[in-house]
Amino acid sequence: xxxxFTIIIAIVFxxxxxxxxxxxxxxxxxxxxxxxxxxxxGFVKQTTEESEAQQAKxxxxxxxxxxxxxxxxxxxxxxxxxxxxxxxxxxYQPFDTAVDGNYLTSCKEVNQIIYNTFLSQMExxxxxxxxxxQLIDGIVFQQFNVIITFPNQMKLTTHMYSSLFDKEELTINxxxxxxxxxxxxxxxxxxxxxx
Length: 195
Fold this sequence. Notes:
Blueprint: E1 26-30, E2 35-39, E3 44-45, H1 48-66, E4 75-83, E5 86-94, H2 97-100, H3 103-121, E6 126-136, E7 139-149, E8 155-165, E9 168-176, H4 179-190
Antiparallel strand pairs: 1-2, 3-4, 4-5, 5-9, 6-7, 7-8, 8-9
Helix pairs in contact: 1-3
């Protein structure tokens, strides 16, 4: 399996209390995609080490589910958390249709892998999922949503957005338990610009 799908980090709740300075009107610009996004107030930027540790846990969960090694080749653009269960992350990785096949087919396969990994790694939960598309500043993104309901009725919502830019796939992952935090992350993402 070539790609690690970092939305799986949602399975691993972030465990430490963070005393670092929280964001306030922080803008992130990525020259590679000419993309600008405003990070909501009150989030903490993850260190490279924290982000890599989460990605390694996600890779291990997929490996455990599919009994297959995962090669992680994505590059993190940003990684922020509000608290243990509210997380905002973006990365990109190579995707060449001449080598990797049809992009939309790949998205469907990734969605199934994510769903199956959630299902195999969490006990006594119910899950709802759907796939759609979302237009962001004129660019069509494939969108995959999963809502996980725990026995105590807590709901964990994840949204993964992906789009192919020439030979690279840009992915944005949003995970939340707190609806207000989720709404702020979604608003930031939906109002971001690619120009």
